[in-house]
# Entry
Amino acid sequence: MTKSLTGRTLSFVLREVIGEILYFPVWWYSDGLRLTWRRTVRQWWGMVDRLGLRFLIINIGKPMYADYSRSGRIISFFFRLLLIGWSLAVLTVWSGVIVFLFLLWLLVPVVAVGMLIRQLIPA
# Structure
């Protein structure tokens, strides 16, 4: 007994669609979570690089603009401290934003399923 081409195609498509729907939560909290975490860490390090924080910390004791006088060294030190403080403040805000977005990414399927169940099962 052979099935028709339409029947086999319909069976295949339904099996694939249902399989993908059932596999989605597994992917979201395994491979998807790993990929999102890596992207989050990469964005954080990218912000550290854009702010030049490592460069500022490494060169905190060196004078700026080759001004080796005592006043030049003192001004350079305190100016770099000010820049490090500002960069750390910006990095803290950015860290809060990307952690919030990461947690939101984790909660989206749970909230969606909860809202779906709430609509399907009236209280």
